[in-house]
Amino acid sequence: MRGRTLLFCALIGFMIFGLVRVFKTDTSDPEAVVGRYLSHWQVDNSTGMYPLISTRAKSEWARQKTTNAFDYYSRYAGNHEDLIHWQIESRSIGQNTGRFTVSLGFRDLVGRETERRSIFYLVREEDGWRVDGLQQGSGYALP
Predict the structure, then answer these.
(1) Stretch 115-130: mean pLDDT, rounded?
(2) DSSP state at residue 53
(3) CA-CA distances (angstroms) from residue 48 to 44, 73, 95, 120?
(4) What number is the average pLDDT over the span 25-47?
(5) Is residue 106 part of a domain?
(6) What number of other Cβ atoms are within 10 A of residue 42's Cβ?
(7) Is the pLDDT reported for residue 85 higher than 80?
């Protein structure tokens, strides 16, 4: 009986490991991370954005009483405008940091469209690249 239990537990462990690998966000390519982050922003999917931000940014959000993806959404919804399109203009990728200049198109409440250039900063963490912050004009903000 003990052998069957061990085999069953091992099988369940492999299945869980496989599911985690299938649903884990790929963060190996910094440009893909920025693209995914912006695509999630464009469709108002803050729970998709949350795994793409850095540990430092998550710590800062936690300090502001934002401890999970749902809390992040409530902060995000109040701080982000409706993104209608985006395009990466330039990139600079080092060993552990990256910087992407992105043209962002927004729509306000009355339907006017505006263009803004932003700089997205990335850091390489143990498991891949993450968005660490963004700069719009002279202001630096959490992602």
Answers:
(1) 94
(2) B
(3) 9, 10, 25, 17
(4) 89
(5) yes
(6) 15
(7) yes
Mean pLDDT over residues 90-106, rounded?
94
pLDDT at 74: 60
CA nearest to 86, candidates 119, 140, 39 = 39
Q: Report the residue count for the chain.
A: 143
Asked if pLDDT for residue 82 goes beyond 90, the answer is no
Cα–Cα distance for residue pair 52/27, rounded to 1 Å:
8
**Residue 47 belongs to domain spanning:** 27-141
Does the predicted model carry a pTM greater than 0.70? yes
Find the radius of gyration of the CA atoms of the chain.
19
Q: Is residue 120 domain-resident? A: yes
Q: How many structural domains are present in the chain?
A: 1
Residue 99 is assigned to a structural domain of this protein: yes
For residue 89, give the amino acid letter: E
Is-contact 105 85, C-beta < 8 A? yes
> Which carries the bigger pLDDT value, residue 88 or residue 17?
88
CATH number of the domain that residue 45 is part of: 3.10.450.50
Look at residue 14 and tell me if it is in a domain.
Answer: no
Read off the tokens for 13: 């462990």
